[in-house]
Structures
1.
Amino acid sequence: SGTIHEKYVEFSWKGTDDFTSEEQLTYSYKLEPYENTWSDWTRETSINYEDLAEGKYTFFVQAKDYRDNVDPTPAERSFVIEKEETADPPPNSPPDTEILTGPEGIITETSIIFTWIGSDDETPTSNLKYSYWLDGKDLDWSSWTSSTEQEYNNLHYGEYTFRVKARDESGEEDDDSPAQQSFSVEPWDPNRFVTRVVDYSVTGNLDKIKGAPHGCGMYCGSGHVLTLGNNGHVTVGFNVVIVNEPGYDFIVFENPFSINGT
């Protein structure tokens, strides 16, 4: 009775009479609207139905004694078959990609390598596929690959943006948020190495000048003219180590130097 979700039902019953024993009683039944007529009389006390459609049903059963007296008030039981609602599985989130190494900012090298890694809530990292695109060189996204690095050589001077996205085993892609990193390739020009002095400090035994961004690689030795305020120019000769940080180059003096011959 009530609401069920199975398409298989079984009914069993028993009858009683003042004069006829239980073993001598016979029965007739029907399941409306599955059946519209009563069954033949039988001594069976159970029946099952299979593959019932969704909907409302009422089962009736009546008894008859050995004198052919029929029960005027058949027993009945009503029920409803409904499709069981199942919760929708949570949507599969697209994978995520992170660039591990690669140039950013201003560089002078024309050969570069990018490396990356992906992650997903269902697909193991080793089974992810990747597609990449270097805007400024490539015409479109690459074909899908399991590789997690890409090298470019002989880049022209200019601005570039590298993008990489992942695809999981279900076909989900992080199209909306691929990892990306921008950089510019510029020729080395010592006159652009330091364009202005914004800070000067001494840390330990190292004298540092913090200048505006522009560099010549990791190491270079040269003489440069630095504009210091409104008092003219100071010529400084030294070997330097360039430590690139956003917005500045740090110049670390490694050899003694002189200012205006002193």
2.
Amino acid sequence: MTGDIPQPGGCLEKGWTGRGAISSPGCKRVAPLNCIGATDLELGISTMLEIMAITRGCLDNPGVLENHQGALGAQKGLPTPFGEQESGGEDRACEGGGVRAAEEKNFIVVGPSKPVVTYVGEDVVLPASLSPALNAEAFQVRWFTTDYGSPELLYIDYNIRIQTDTRRTLSIDNLKNGNVSLIIRNVRVSDDHLYRCYVFSGQRDEDTQVSLTVEVLGAQPSISMSSTEGQKTRLECSAEKWNPQPEVTWRDMNGADVTSQSTIKSERDSEGLLRVSSVLPVKEEYNVFSCLMRSKAPKPDWHSGLGIYTDVTFDPETAHPRLIVSEDGKEVRDTNTRQGVTDNPKRFDRCVYVMARGGFTSGRHYWEVEVGGKTKWDLGVARESANRKGRIILTPYNGYWTVWLRNENEYAALIGRPLPLHLRVKPQTVGVFLDYDEGQVSFYNAQSRSHLYTFTDSFTEPLYPYFSPGLNDGGKNAAPLVICPLRTH
């Protein structure tokens, strides 16, 4: 057995340049394993057996899988994402559900279809996930920009082995749910790149790419006039501290666009920001010109959604008995007391949740919710068949794509285990954008116009806006959740 398993550096010593074949007692087939050299993969015998137990499954031999689980031990991390329940007046957690077993061998890596846009100083998540949601703890996860051999981050053998910048990381606790997203803290202009995410299971390798645009709105442009050697007059419109290069538009006194007659150049300063200059030759006769600079960075989905606001109202037929929905269906709060309402299949009976009226099966939908003054809340979407009775665990696998606030300033995306969202600005209004056809649910600080998190998945049944105002908590969390009025522009 030992002779069949590459020791640390053994791939190169045995002359294996491609894939080696190793086997394990209890696994009925030979499991291929990529030999990638001692610099990339230095594994002992026990670790190799653990990888085989996951990448091949070995489900026909429960003993092997049990040994693997015992070797790994209990996973440590953040609390499981249980929603709040009303039970005997106690503020306890809804529980139940579980983690999906990694039985499938084939998978793809799913990333966003559009660039992720963020701002300097914020934290950002470059979303990437396995479909189906396999356990990726034993996989290799490599994030790089231009050179595969020089990764920004490399996770292998159950640990992050390469991390060129400590601001870049991934949530190891969430790998078991197939989430391989890259997290970048305190974003800089230098983080503006096209990133590649490569995942190798030991049998199969897949990848996706995510474009990150770090937007900086620069100084207001100024116009100056000068003459060339031939005594021709020219106007120069310039501004500093932009990223990416802005779009420049020239117009004359009649409003005609004369941008085609201009030239533009830009150069980066020591901070990586752009100084932009656009020159427009003009004739001697009297005229008035204006110069407009505006960002041409891809707008986040919430921005494109401004023209497709959806009129969302709370459905009192789904509300937990402690919740009161206003007559217009735009406010919900916890009353601390069960109301005399009749139960029905749609109503939450233990967790203090409520759905909206009407679901979505296609298209793009955007709504905003006022969350100011609250110490806890949940927002997101849920599939029609998601469990509404008893204890509930909030995960995409269970049909809930949500973010929450806890303890007044602890924000998280619920992807199996809570993924902390380190926000520098406390949102007063949260925008939720559902692109059903693209399989994305995105959350934004609607006031600062900053992206919070995006779930990427595939949807096969109606989705409903989901909300929880949280328990009253002795008046500390008494403020309601309020759905903002529908915009018409």
